[in-house]
Structures
1.
Amino acid sequence: MASTMAIEGKHKQVYESFHGAGKFPDGCKAAKGWFDQLRDACKRVGSWKEGEEEGAVMDDVLKKTENLGGVLTKDGDVLKKTKDGDELKKTKDLGGVLTKDLGGVLTTSTLGQGLLGLRKWEKHSVDDGFTQERVAELLDQGPCIGRLWVCPWYFHFDAAKNNWVYRGCGRDEGDRAESKRLYGNHQNGSHVVVCFQYRLCGEQMHVLVLDNHGKDGPERWIDFEELDALFTLKVDCLCGTPDHYHDAGTSLVT
């Protein structure tokens, strides 16, 4: 899920700004089963749509992620439910206290032990004015979530195999209605990706995005005008042991 990839990427950016490139701990990456847990939590509150247009509105996914305390990490995945009256506790070796949200997903109140926290997110819409300068300003803050309309040919673009730049068929409501009439709902519709880099080619601006169709993306170049929304993220803490926080100092909010 793009939201999870972006939150992990934001934490990685913050952590490595203090500790150096390649130092982000493997145990602080998103847990293998986190996507299923987040999807199930969204289903329980009715914000996940199933069928041909399976998915959820990104605003709702980010709100639910906040509600759950953040993204469950590989380290956090070893947490076990153990009954003690009405309380849920963490396994003894990790220490700390577990809480239980309405959907039953475990979260931890101890920073750096099991969660990649999400302090704040902000939605920026094309209606607010998406100039090249504005999009560059948002992307310069670090990994963020982008939303665009994809058409069947979108899936032929892969930055590792070609230098093609995706230009779609849904920049306004009329174009989107026509694309649905022509292609149906299969591989056609609103889609979210992680945006993390851009380049200027003459008067054009291309954004490099990381998709979630495979383990490694793929990465694709898209014309910046295909984006109809960007979601920027702020995180409270780096993922690691208390010593990591001490080493990094106190300015951990980005």
2.
Amino acid sequence: MATRRPRLVRLVAPLLLTGAGMLALNVTGQEPATRPLDCEPGGLCDPMPESPLAYAAMCELELGVPPKIDCGAGVPIPITVDGTEIFENPGLHECDNASLQVGDCMPGSSLQRYQGANRDGTARDDAVWISFCRHDGRGTEEYDVPDSVQMIGYNYDTGATCFFESADNSPWTYVDDQNRLRGVMPGYDEPGFDDAYTVPGPAGIQCVQCHQADPFIHNPWIKSARLPEDPGQPVIPVIPGNNPPYYVVGAPEWDMRTIHIEGNGCLACHRIGMNTLAEFTGDHWDPNEHMPPHDPGSLAADLEELAACWENGPENTLGCDWVIPPAGECDGGVVGDDYPFAAARFNRRTGGLNGAEAAGWRRPGC
């Protein structure tokens, strides 16, 4: 078994970019491991169970118990048009900050942050949970995208992450006369929990296809919901460091790779999930108009360097590698062509192949 990874030091993420020389290092200050697959985060564990209640029990060791969600108690995601808050759906891409997922502008969604807690009610400072009650506006005449209730739990020290998605939540939720999704979902210790939620990975879908860089996706839409007790912070946590630990409980076979280029300025503050970035840019979001926050556009050449690696593939790009994050006792680091968990639906060429003869990598914006 691999040696235990030194405990992470949790620091406030810097506002300015750090020195480029740090980019090849993981958070322990060591060179990325070249054979990280000798270690499995959390040790050998059971595969993903079919029951949400059984999955909650699997997550409990690292995260405590999942919270009971009251959608009416969450912080609304404000939707504005020309700076004025609205409460009716203006249509896709018709608001100031659309969702970057097909341009959803539907009001009535909310977020809530919960400190981790054990079954006996004692607090867990190492864990955080986020709930997302989504009043969805991405439907079409052919298909109405249903509203949903989701939970993500994260352990800051080990990176252990659990995803819960609602099944048919209509027995517990409703839309009020102000167009807001409300309702109380069953708690883990109440009848109905197994009916209200599903375990991650239905139909072979991996949550990390979108939640690539870390468990919590940030964009202007979702970050507009702020903590009432500290409006300087979004409800969605900002995980400290440029290489925080991350793995999904019960899913050791999920594809955790992102690309890495030593000295690339975009990676000085955080990892980048290029598949997620491609979705954002495909929804009319230009990174150079927003990033880095203190000087937008100043890292355009670094972004182009990442895009070229994504288009051509790390295997065909000198100085670009696939890496996996540190996780539990495992250091993470560079992985090669023998990585056994390469996904079929993402992190691959558009032709669905993994070799040089394929059609090319999906470029952000395409």
